[in-house]
Amino acid sequence: GAGVSQTPSNKVTEKGKYVELRCDPISGHTALYWYRQSLGQGPEFLIYFQGTGAADDSGLPNDRFFAVRPEGSVSTLKIQRTERGDSAVYLCASSSGLAEYNEQFFGPGTRLTVL
Amino acid sequence: EDQVTQSPEALRLQEGESSSLNCSYTVSGLRGLFWYRQDPGKGPEFLFTLYSAGEEKEKERLKATLTKKESFLHITAPKPEDSATYLCAVRPSGGSYIPTFGRGTSLIVHP
Asked: What is the per-residue pLDDT across A35-57, written as a single tens digit (0 to 9) for each?
């Protein structure tokens, strides 16, 4: 596709359940970022990949959160034992590199609601 | 710790009424300052990157400027379609590739 896509667009789950959020970056983009955005806040960094490896996961809030990008393209953000505080919009962005002049292209986000 | 503060939180303008949005930042060396537009239910859309004090960039009715402490997004003769949330983010110099975002300014332009 022409842009970054994220699936599902909405996810409602119950407290304690496991969820997976998927990001399809722009073809050829080597850098991929995950952010979390709560209502009225700016995006908050979670993790970024350069290629297949997680280059920096310092933004992941705790060990319930994990992300993979096994083939250097699609990425999955995994959340175990979800809590109500995990409710937010999860945004993915890709770029052709990590340099500041490499524009980040954002997907539409996945809205996660934990009941 | 890098900090970004945007003001005002919300701004209502009449069509054609020019104004400016502010982004104040504290960062350990600036690698780049970014402006994004975000429409409801969508991801942020890139507008500008500014790299050094004194730099200016323009796109249609938008003009971004940068000093050592803040950036302004000037909106000239806005139209209702300019209504959106405008986000500012900074990247520090050094080895970090992590941007810090502000909370954004919600702009509504009335016809």
From this structure: 999 999 999 999 999 988 888 99
